[in-house]
Specification:
By secondary structure, this protein is an all-beta fold. It contains no helices and nine strands. The chain has strands at 6-14, 20-24, 29-40, 46-53, 59-68, 73-75, 81-83, 88-93, 99-109. The strands form two sheets. Strands 1, 3, 6, 7 and 9 form a five-stranded antiparallel β-sheet that branches.
Amino acid sequence: MATALNVFRTVTANIKTTPNVIYTAPILKTAIVLSMQVTNVTNSTVNTTFYHSTAGNILVELSKDFDIPTKDSASITTGKLVLETGQKVVASASVSDALKVVMSVLETAND
């Protein structure tokens, strides 16, 4: 059976206080993050940092110490983000499970 050339995915996660992996580009695929929205579900402002992680686990900030007001949301990326095989989106927050993220991702085969 042939592998699909392009696959759309929706990824959801709760953000923890320690940096945790939200998404990893699969083997033999390139992933394009089309959108990444984070929502604060608490009654106080919560601070967050999002990272791009290389396959070698080097973290580069996409947004740093970004405040999400109570009951509000924000788009973390203003454009597309390309992830090569093994690269990741990682996030942390000042309060565990106070922020929820929804990502739209297009995975495309590298063959």
